Amino acid sequence: MKKLLVGLMVFFTLTVTQAFAYNLKSFTSDAKIMAAMQLLEQNGEYDVFANLKKNAVKVKFYHLSMNNVYAANAYDEFGRRVILINSAYKNAPIEQIACLIAHESCHVARKATLEEETRATSKEASCWTKLKKSNVVYPQTKLTKRLDNLAGLHTASVQDGNNYIGDKIASSSFYRNQFGMN
User: Fold this and answer.
1) What's the whole-model pTM score?
2) Would you give the distance in Å from CA 12 to the centre of its chain?
3) What residues have CB less than 8 Å from 94, skipping those under 6 apart?
4) In whole numbers, what is the pLDDT of the chain averaged over residues?
5) pLDDT digits (tens, 9 = 90+) for 9-29
6) Burial (0-12, 13-18, 19+ Cβ within 10 Å), 59
């Protein structure tokens, strides 16, 4: 009986793992993006996948001409949503790519709102707090500095109940213009 239970557990585990790996291929064909998505899955970020699956989103690296854009949501010629990760970050650690995917997965509206951007940026910060390895020295890039700053704001918000990420976004001239808040 014990062997049967162990056998069933192994079978179930392998079946679920294979099914999930198959699903990852429906989001991307890029090995690095797939590794970042596996990291998200291994760390229980299931809501990222629920959002991606619900909206049939594809994820890929793409040359984004604006240097200060890390990733963006776009629509392909068939009207399907695509997450474009700036190809400038193709060599970034998978933990950082995972955070960008987590952020962009939160966007569902064709035009972001302050609330949606705050939720997406908070998700990105939360993922970085969870995924960043303490024994790794990350390259000091713009992306690393951004993630470290967001993680600090997220941690402070959790500790004292304020929404420092939302405040930062609301006070940004870039977002004030985008959201028509001027």
Assistant:
1) 0.85
2) 28
3) 32, 35, 36, 39
4) 88
5) 545 444 444 444 437 888 999
6) buried
